Amino acid sequence: MVNLDERASILSEALPYILKYKEKIIVIKYGGNAMVDEHLKQLVMDDVVMLNSLGMKVVLVHGGGPEISGMLKKINKESKFVNGLRVTDSETVDIVTQVLAGKVNKNLVKQLNMAGGNAIGLSGLDSGLIEAAPLNPELGYVGNITNINPDVILDLLDMGYIPVISTIGYDKDGNVYNINADTAAARIAGALNAEKFIAMTDIKGVLKDKNDDSTLMKFINVSEIKSLAKEGIIDGCMIPKVECCVEAIRRGVKYVVIIDGRIPHSILIEMLTDDGAGTEFR
After folding, report:
1. Which of 13, 90, 178, 281 has the most CB atoms at less than 10 Å from its CB?
2. For this structure, is 117 an active site residue?
3. Distance between CA atoms of residues 268 and 51, nearest Å
4. Burial level of 3, CB count in 10 A (0-12/13-18/19+)?
5. Model confidence pLDDT, tens digit, residues 123-173
């Protein structure tokens, strides 16, 4: 049990960060195991509501790959991937829209509201939020973001809401596209001039030795990334996540970090403690 001195120390450590981020925009990309595990999901909702109650303007951008795969399986449609991206034909993009903008998005909104928040669900189709074009003909309706229109998000933040955003977009002809959630979250963070972008993952962060969590790299300069990739420290599924972090930095986000969504309250640890919870990019 935490004694009174320890409690006071925790609160004293958190206070400078509460003041630092008050009224600032924080974009959180949410997915992975923290989204599948119901206990972890509830803790994430609690953390988001906590930050919002402390005066921070939190935007939650989510994926939903496992839910999409599950729905496709129910209709006996095979999931196909090319370089980690889901091949999305016209039938699949309809399922993606139903699952992301419907089931997943509204369940998150419900849980945030039940946790004491005031959340509103959006998709990239709302108010022209995410404009897109085909990324690669081989992938079908997988989109490359051409523009972010953040006004609807800013309006909701000014009114005290927590925007919850599913990452589908559209083009001038009305075609709908499946957008990679990491990419969309980074672009949204840049368009909002966010103070901080947090990418939740299924690993501790960038490790010098992938088999040893104690080798976590707390800070990485963007200039180091090419050499780290050559050494194999950044590889596989970590490459696109790191690229999204770099994209957020290049678009003006001040603090960018990858954290482990499997750790309970990792968001609060990252936001309100000196040590943080993952790898920060500078």
Report:
1. 178
2. no
3. 8
4. exposed
5. 999 999 999 999 998 899 999 999 999 999 999 999 999 999 999 999 999
63, 64, 65, 121: which is the annotated catalytic residue? 65
Does the structure show a pLDDT above 90 at 36? no
Active site annotation includes 65: yes
Q: Which candidate in 182, 190, 260, 261 is catalytic?
A: 182
Q: Which of 169, 241, 260, 261 does the annotation list as catalytic?
A: 241
Give me the domains of the chain, ranges plus CATH numbers.
23-281 (3.40.1160.10)
Q: 199, 182 in Cβ contact below 8 A?
A: yes
d(CA 85, CA 87): 6
| Confidence category of residue 212, pLDDT binned at 50, 70, 90 | confident
Question: What pLDDT is attached to residue 230?
Answer: 86
H helices within 216-274, ranges in order? 225-230, 238-250, 266-272
Half-sphere exposure for 87 (CA within 13 Å, toward CB): 9
pTM comes to: 0.93
Q: Is 73 a catalytic residue?
A: no
